[in-house]
Amino acid sequence: MPTLTLPAELEGLPVVASVSGGKDSTALILGLTEASIPFRAVFADTGWEADETYAYLDMLRARVCPIDVVRAKPQAPGAQGGMVDRVLHRANFPARLQRWCTSELKVGPIREYHKKLGVETVSVVGIRATESESRAKMLEVDDDSEWGGWVWRPLLRWSVEDVLAVHHRFDIPVNPLYRRGHDRVGCYPCIFARKEEIRLVAEHAPERIDLIRNMEQVCTTMRAERNRIQPGRYAHPQASFFQNRNRGNAAMSIDEVVAWSRTARGGKHLPILPEPPSGGCFRWGLCERPPTETAEAEEAAD
Q1: pTM for the complete prediction?
Q2: pLDDT tens-place string over residues 59-80
Q3: What CATH topology corresponds to 8-190+276-291?
Q4: What is the phi/psi pair of residue 124, to 5°?
C-alpha cells in the first residue's frame, strides 16, 4: 500500500492540491489526508462541468476537506467568467491549436490562487505515469519553469488499483460519471471527447447539447456581423464546438457529431476527433487523459 511522504525540499511550504472531481485528484486529497500532510484543495470551475461533478465535489467537501473554488474573470457584465462567457466573447470555441480553455479557465485562475498566498507554494497534482509516455518521463518533484514554482506529483508511480484502494479505505465512491461509462472527468464535454462520451452526454444531459447548439448559432451570427465590419476576421463563417480533422478542421455542427456518436463501430465512421495532447489541463492534473489501463479495476469501485 503506497503512502505519501512530503519530500524534504518541500517541507515548510504551503501545499496546494488541485482537484477536478476525477478519481486521481480525489485519491490525491485522500492520500494527503491519510498521511496527515497539511494542504489546501482548490478546484478551477470552468462553468462547464457535469452536474454530477459539482455534486461530487460537494460530497468531498462534506466528507474529506474544504475545497476552494476559483474562476476566470468574466468578459461580459454579469457573467460568471466560465466557458460560455468566453465563447460568446470570442464567437469562437476552444480548439486543438487554440486551447485557451486550459490557460484561461484552469491554469491561470489556479496560478492566481497560489500567488495570493503571498509565499512560495507547492502545486500538488494527481497525475500518474501509466497514463501517457510524456507523464512517465516527469519527475515526482520539479521546480517547474513552465508552472513557475514547485510541482509535486506524489501519485506518479501509483497504479489505478492503488487509486481505487485509497477510495475504499475512506469509503469514498468514484465520481458517478465513471460508472455511467465515461473514461475521464472534466469539461462536459471536452473538445477531445471520445465518440462514446459524446453519446453519453447526449443521452443523459440533452440540455448541454441544446446549449452547444444555441452557442454555435449565436457565434455564427456574431462572426457574420464582425466579418462585415472587419472582413476576414474569421476564416470560417460557421462556429462549431467540434471540428472534422479529415476535412481540414472544417466545422461540424453538434447535431452532426451527436448523430455520428450514435452510429455502430464499423458503420458510418467519421474519425473527427484528435487524440488529446500531453500538455494543458492534462499536464497539471486539472482534467484526465483517457486511461491506458484496463477498466476491470475501476469496475471494482462500485
Answers
A1: 0.86
A2: 999 999 999 999 999 987 777 7
A3: Rossmann fold (3.40.50)
A4: -105, 125
